[in-house]
Write a structure and sequence with these properties.
Length: 123
């Protein structure tokens, strides 16, 4: 399953026509202790770059943007009950939402793991 990354510190796992999206370990480290997460509802249509979710921590509130366009098929309800999952498992159980990919061509230009690591090291 290919994983892509954005400059906004989101990760995207692609499995067929479905993408699972969350924030990276780097992002959760910058946010600090996450205290609230709002995920999109199933059926929501998101354009690439649109605000998709909200995450609040003891340091700041931030938006999570859709790295590609599509229709939300599932929001991670576990985050609303246990937002700390973003800190404890940011790139696994702490995923934010899944969507049906509208245009796989939008994945072009996103970073792979090596490019994302180099991007973070340059920050």
């Amino acid at each position: 399953m290919p994983r892509y990354f954005t400059e906004d510190h989101e990760w995207i796992d692609v499995d067929g026509d479905t993408a699972t999206i969350g924030i990276t370990d780097y992002a959760q480290g910058q946010l600090g202790d996450v205290v609230f997460v709002e995920v999109p509802q199933p059926g929501a249509e998101l354009a690439k770059g649109a605000e998709a979710a909200v995450v609040e921590s003891v340091k700041a509130a931030s938006e999570v943007y859709a790295p590609i366009g599509g229709t939300v098929t599932e929001g991670n309800a576990a985050l609303e009950a246990d937002p700390e999952l973003v800190n404890s498992s940011p790139e696994d159980a702490g995923w934010f939402f899944k969507l049906a990919i509208a245009d796989a061509g939008e994945l072009d230009g996103l970073m792979d793991a090596g490019a994302y690591k180099a991007f973070c090291e340059a920050l």
